[in-house]
Amino acid sequence: MSRIPITLVTGFLGSGKTTLIAQLLTQPGLAGTLVVVNEFGVVGIDHDLLEASSDDTILLANGCLCCTIRGNLVDTLLDVQAQVADGRLRAFDRVVVETSGVADPAPLLGFLLSDAAVMARYRLEQVIATIDAVAGAEALERHPEADHQARVADRLLLTKTDLVTPAAADALAARLRGLNPVAPILPVLQGQIAAEELLGPGSAQDATAPCGPFCGDPSHAHEHHHHAERFSATVLHATQTLEEADIARIEAALRAWAGPHLLRLKGILPLRDGRVAILQAAMMVVHPAEFQPGPAHAAGRLVLIVEGPAPAPLLQALEGFGLERDGVG
Ligand SMILES: Nc1nc2c(ncn2[C@@H]2O[C@H](COP(=O)(O)OP(=O)(O)OP(=O)(O)O)[C@@H](O)[C@H]2O)c(=O)[nH]1
């Protein structure tokens, strides 16, 4: 059974998460989506769109399902699977989770990645953050949650650019690039974006993104480390293919070091046998590596987002596997 991809949509209060998701749901490709939201109705669902409901899960006319988080996200994700299994809920092939605007997504990623039952049925595809061009800079300044949301995202969506000058939007984009040098920044008006542009394999596996976490173009002057910042983003390039046993050793090195200082780690490492190993971690959780058939000439990358500078002993250990730091911190 193939695992169901999860896209986490994070972003500060009022930054346009609901607008984005509601717009995505109108697109035919997303008909089999289950949307999980924090509060009933936050997806702004027009009641005409509602077709049926079971417990607190509602079926929208376009075929999407929408449910509210009961207890915690892990319980909800397992519960909806149980509902599908016993026929109470129609099957779904994608999950979009709208997190609370004030939630720090890093612990949430940790919970997801650490739950074996969830990870057996689902896979974390990507994290999208909406950043409000009007209020975003202040939110980043005042709220560590907003800062974390921007740092851990695979894609940053700059919303409400119609309400600010191009110079202000550029200044915020530059700031975001400083916080998260590896995520592409996409301006989105009223949530209007083609699902294909946004969803899909996710950056951890998306070696072809124009300038994503795995941007390999040396002409892109990413600033990967910021001494003045509390956090650093470090990108390591794979200079060689690896054996499965090497991946186990890399996981062990990461486990020895993971902790609350680790906001997020994502990696795609090519193996000698043509597969790739996908690594993901957040906080103290290092999810067991997943092995997939790799795209030909997959460019291996590992991105570390940590509080403080990336620890030298870990970088040294990773260097032993041919993972070389991209740029100087
Ligand atoms: N002008 C303008 N308004 C927008 C845009 N995107 C969203 N909005 C408006 O911003 C307001 C907040 O958007 P929401 O989608 O509810 O934001 P949210 O992140 O889901 O908010 P919370 O659920 O409170 O965290 C709504 O009134 C939207 O219509 C945009 O690109 N331009």
Task: Note down, in words, how this protein is organized.
Zinc chaperone that directly transfers zinc cofactor to target proteins, thereby activating them. Zinc is transferred from the CXCC motif in the GTPase domain to the zinc binding site in target proteins in a process requiring GTP hydrolysis. InterPro entries: CobW-likC_sf, CobW-like_C, CobW/HypB/UreG_nucleotide-bd, P-loop_NTPase, Zinc-reg_GTPase_activator. Keywords: Chaperone, Hydrolase, Nucleotide-binding. Residues 244-320 form the CobW C-terminal domain. Pfam families: cobW, CobW_C. By secondary structure, the chain is α/β, with parallel strands linked by helices. The protein has two domains: 4-200, 3-Layer(aba) Sandwich (Rossmann fold); 231-325, CobW-like, C-terminal domain (Hypothetical Protein Yjia, Chain: A,domain 2). 29% of the residues lie in helices and 29% in strands. It is built from ten helices and 15 strands. The strands form two sheets. Strands 3-4-5-2-6-1-7-8-9 form a nine-stranded mixed sheet, sandwiched between helices. A six-stranded antiparallel sheet has the order 13-12-11-14-10-15, sandwiched between helices. Helix 5 crosses helix 6. The radius of gyration is 19 Å and the shape is globular. The chain binds guanosine-5'-triphosphate.
